[in-house]
Write a structure and sequence with these properties.
This protein is an all-alpha fold and 63 residues long. It has 2 helices and no strands. The chain is 75% helix and 0% strand. Helix 1 packs across helix 2.
Length: 63
């Protein structure tokens, strides 16, 4: 298997995973609200979290 073929296979797998994550985020968002605008915003946020992870809150520094 050549390097180009392996890269294509990896890219196809990654694309498939991203499509599945987007569909899951959209499904979850639409099950939580009937408002189209909020569902779209929530789906984008959920998709970001599913791909990158939820950001940690930094503890507030005490002066």
């Amino acid at each position: 298997m050549g390097l180009r073929s392996e890269a294509s296979s990896l890219q196809a797998g990654l694309t498939q995973r991203l499509v599945a994550l987007a569909a899951k985020a959209d499904e979850l968002a639409r099950s939580r609200t009937g408002d189209e605008k909020r569902a779209t915003e929530l789906a984008c946020l959920l998709e970001f979290w599913l791909i990158h992870g939820k950001p940690r809150r930094e503890p507030k520094e005490k002066d």
